[in-house]
């Protein structure tokens, strides 16, 4: 149940697919080329593999526990978190100005993947802190930034996102927590927040809650929500910790997975009001929170890839070790089960989907770097549009895949997969939250259809299709057999995607409910085809560079061909479902269920 | 978290799809028509809903526990089991000659579905007893039958299947347990058996273990395995219980799901040898065990349908109750989430797959009745061949579906789905064993390809395709729009299935590994298309009989159309994957992973 960071694949993706040289050419990123990436990845892998990964199973067996308002994390988590801070890992992506290391998102993404693969439960704490940092840097006053950002970026304090309330899950318009202005410019916060990841814990000396609440006389709905920073311990003018704030954990959840990550119910203001400070302007809280959420959505997509990789490594190890039944082609004695065609098919499915999803996510990270740092405004704008289009796909597609792939991981183990001590079941349970939190797959898909596809008439989506078509041409020009097989499958997939985009754009206004009934399958279609595109590009690289590393590139070639033959054909079914079944879904009256 | 047996759908399937009138026309089944079925189903539903279903969650929270060789089942299980015995439910399908009720499998199958939907963990005990009864009645001497069958059929004793050993999972050729002949005609059994469902418990006074072991000088491999009956307590000549036998539970497993069902490690012969009696002839144990396994495989398929139905009911209840977000078409306030297109799509997916799988399974049960009881030998033979073809599909397809559908059940609950107390996660965990035990999906699929498809040159498979084509003609003749949509999708699916059968038959001998790499997707393809066929037949019935029950038949019509539009298109992808990716799977050398 150990974990080996797939550094070779990560570097291949960075170099050949995500364009690290382009990123390293951006102003301020001159030192962050492939050599730096390799050094950082090696260092990150050591920390993750040696310190965090061994805690994953322990976190499941011995989850965070709650007593008298206190949460005690899994034994070993506190020491690992101390080393996480000492290594500066919280600051990788954050600005040097506040003590961070200012790495490109492309490199930071690989570090993120490793940390999540090592332990989803552990990595959630830094992930939420990242979101809090990003929201503060985007929206808070300079004073608030100075007060909180350095200690969050160092990891000395951690952050949380407080959105959900019992009656307000996906629908933030229903938020009821309220903020009362005080004479000193602060606010008193009152309300109950649920599902707060690391809302209480013993890893750090302070917890910085970012809380959505309503000011008196605020408008109804999402336009009346403001964002407040509410620390567990108040912060004195000199930066030292002051009084305990009136924000208390009243319970944590008993969950299917990620059990070491405490999911808190937080009560604000039961003893006179929790003191908070307004972040940015009143009533713009949701907008600021979306800054956190977009970063977090991408990170949850990485969680999907990370847990799929971990499950794959575990299943692969078992399949190589476990000897059972004769070879179908007729060996005398029993063989390792990896020799059995269906086990191999399952492993290839895990490998192909995981590598494709990784490539797509890293390319998405690179668009973020270009969107923020390119000198040319049109390049920034173009990449921001690509990033906005791709984030819901990375989130929705990678996490939906992770459920399927961790399930295959269990299946490869046979009966042992169902026994908890084997560890395969933990990945299956852990993965199950990923399609739900930070916006369910349907929320991602509705965003993808409405704001990201229909609003611009499908322009960004079609621009990606045009780039796919160019890759098809490259494959055709090469004339190599594997490439021609890929080209055919990719073309069919791309045509299915184009037809679907056309359908959505043409009907979104007049056939609202039928169109949105197809949103999730459109998201999955886009993820499947864009993943296939990345595998096609990887195949081109493999055909060109095979001699440099025959084992790596042969594996990439065969994996890509498998993607073309076994996975890409699902594109037609997804497209057909989107284009034909929406009206039928709408026709099914609630009473008929 | 209550359960309502879907009696209306069950009776519809029996009458309009599975041909209960044909079954009731068989010799000995004259009293088992629709009226009897309705009465039995009503009675079974009362018992299952009121007594068993409420224990399901308790069984998860308070699983079977092990101490000092004893297993204590979940509080309430013992009382429920007493009522199960008192109701005569163990005997439903077994011969009146031994105290059973002799019902057709078609009717018994509905009772089975209800019991499993109420609690998979509880229902496993009777399911294993069924298998033991069937093996004894098929293979044992009259004396052994008289000794064990009546008390198993009454439920006073329970049965187990002891196949698996640490080194012998799917590969029974590796069984090492041994049997030493004694002077008195009995045998001393030695060995370790693992994964023994209800191998130890406190529900009944005796447990009848059926154990695979090797006689001295038996041939290697599966042809040297014999079957023994090894009771927990020896049975005196007068039928009373004698000494404790040397068969002891040494531990039970800590599992992902079905936690109330104790999964035992049994040690035979650590204290001088467990006394067993040979069932049937030496070295034919595997053949006899297959009798149990075929019944059990069908029953596990029913478990898949049952847990899918239960998860659907739970998700439907939540979706109707939970109010969140405005209607996309523009309501003022928030609406129940069932109004949201993607939630409706998920519910329809659950409903459509579950109904299709139920119809296919009940039709399969009817072929078993015809195979055993038809007067005409050619009818018996034809139906036996159909049954043999369909069992691995019912097992493999229904259980694979149950993983997807229980996952949708979690998703519909959003964040609450991840909280154990909600109960949705339990179905997701429970379902995960179903594709593994009683033969993994790959084992089912290899059987389907080798013995059930290739061996007869695809004759049985093609005979089903011909019947599908006839249904297409009926839909065409009707000329109704829903029917024409279904006809087109069904035809495309059937053609994909035929092409796949042709590929398998043509290549199974020369391309062994590539062909078997496609086995699971062939099984899923067959399940998808045969399920679609049943939905097409249901649609015909709905169009003809609508006036009799507009709400029921309108729902059936829309559900069937959804199956045609949203689900059946996957047939092409599955077929393409089988026909093209096998060689690529084979090409991926183990070292390349």
Automatic annotation (TrEMBL), chains A, B:
It is an enzyme of class 1 (oxidoreductase). Pfam families: Acyl-CoA_dh_1, Acyl-CoA_dh_C, Acyl-CoA_dh_M, Acyl-CoA_dh_N. Residues 161-269 form the Acyl-CoA oxidase/dehydrogenase middle domain. Its EC number is 1.3.99.41. The keyword Flavoprotein applies. Gene3D superfamilies: Acyl-CoA dehydrogenase/oxidase, N-terminal domain (1.10.540.10), Butyryl-CoA Dehydrogenase, subunit A, domain 2 (2.40.110.10), Butyryl-CoA Dehydrogenase, subunit A, domain 3 (1.20.140.10). Its cofactor is FAD. It catalyses: 3-(methylsulfanyl)propanoyl-CoA + oxidized [electron-transfer flavoprotein] + H(+) = 3-(methylsulfanyl)acryloyl-CoA + reduced [electron-transfer flavoprotein]. This is 3-methylmercaptopropionyl-CoA dehydrogenase. It comes from Malikia granosa.
């Amino acid at each position: 149940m150990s974990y080996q960071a797939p550094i070779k694949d990560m570097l291949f993706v960075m170099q050949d697919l995500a364009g690290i040289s382009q990123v390293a050419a951006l102003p301020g990123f001159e030192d962050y080329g492939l050599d730096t990436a390799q050094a950082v990845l090696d260092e990150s892998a050591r920390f993750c593999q040696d310190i965090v990964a061994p805690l994953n199973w322990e976190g499941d067996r011995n989850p965070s526990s709650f007593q008298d308002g206190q949460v005690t994390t899994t034994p070993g988590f506190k020491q690992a978190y101390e080393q996480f801070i000492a290594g500066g890992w919280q600051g990788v992506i954050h600005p040097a100005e506040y003590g961070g290391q200012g790495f490109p998102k492309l490199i930071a993404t690989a570090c993120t993947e490793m940390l999540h693969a090592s332990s989803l439960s552990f990595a959630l704490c830094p992930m939420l802190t990242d979101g809090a940092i990003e929201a503060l840097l985007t929206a808070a006053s300079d004073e608030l930034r100075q007060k909180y950002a350095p200690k969050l970026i160092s990891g000395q304090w951690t952050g949380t996102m407080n959105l959900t309330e019992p009656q307000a899950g996906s629908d933030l318009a229903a938020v009821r927590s309220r903020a009362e202005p005080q004479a000193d410019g602060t606010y008193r916060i009152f309300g109950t927040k649920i599902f707060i990841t690391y809302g209480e814990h013993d890893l750090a000396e302070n917890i910085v809650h970012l809380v959505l609440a309503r000011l008196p006389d605020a408008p109804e709905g999402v336009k009346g929500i403001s964002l407040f920073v509410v620390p567990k311990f108040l912060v004195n003018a000199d930066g030292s910790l002051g009084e305990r704030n009136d924000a208390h954990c009243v319970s944590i959840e008993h969950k299917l997975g990620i059990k070491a990550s405490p999911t808190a119910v937080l009560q604000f203001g039961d003893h006179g009001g929790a003191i908070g400070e307004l972040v940015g302007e009143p009533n713009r809280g949701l907008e600021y929170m979306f800054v956190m959420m977009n970063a977090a959505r991408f990170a949850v997509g990485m969680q999907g890839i990370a847990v799929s990789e971990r499950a794959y490594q575990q299943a692969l190890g078992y399949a190589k070790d476990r000897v059972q039944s004769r070879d179908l082609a007729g060996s005398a004695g029993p063989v390792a089960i990896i020799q059995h065609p269906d086990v191999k098919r399952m492993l290839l499915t895990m490998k192909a989907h995981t590598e494709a999803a990784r490539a797509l996510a890293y390319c998405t990270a690179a668009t973020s770097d270009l969107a923020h740092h390119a000198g040319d405004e049109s390049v920034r704008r173009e990449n921001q549009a690509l990033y906005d289009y791709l984030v819901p796909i990375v989130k929705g597609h990678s996490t939906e895949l992770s459920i399927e792939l961790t399930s295959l991981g269990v299946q490869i183990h046979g009966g042992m997969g169902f026994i908890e001590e084997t560890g395969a079941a933990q990945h299956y349970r852990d993965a199950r939250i990923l399609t739900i939190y930070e916006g369910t797959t349907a929320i991602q898909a509705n965003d993808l259809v409405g704001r990201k596809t229909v609003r611009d008439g499908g322009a960004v989506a079609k621009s990606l299709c045009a780039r796919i078509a160019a890759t098809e041409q490259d494959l055709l020009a090469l004339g190599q057999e594997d490439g021609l097989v890929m080209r055919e499958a990719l073309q069919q997939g791309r045509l299915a995607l184009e037809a679907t985009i056309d359908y959505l754009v043409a009907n979104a206004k007049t056939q609202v409910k039928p169109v949105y009934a197809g949103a999730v399958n459109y998201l999955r279609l886009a993820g499947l085809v864009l993943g296939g595109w990345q595998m096609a590009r990887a195949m081109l690289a493999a055909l060109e560079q095979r001699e440099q590393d025959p084992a790596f590139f042969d594996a990439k070639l065969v994996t890509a061909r498998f993607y073309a033959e076994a996975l890409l054909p699902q594109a037609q079914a997804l497209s057909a479902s989107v284009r034909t079944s929406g009206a039928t879904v709408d026709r099914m009256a609630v009473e008929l269920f």
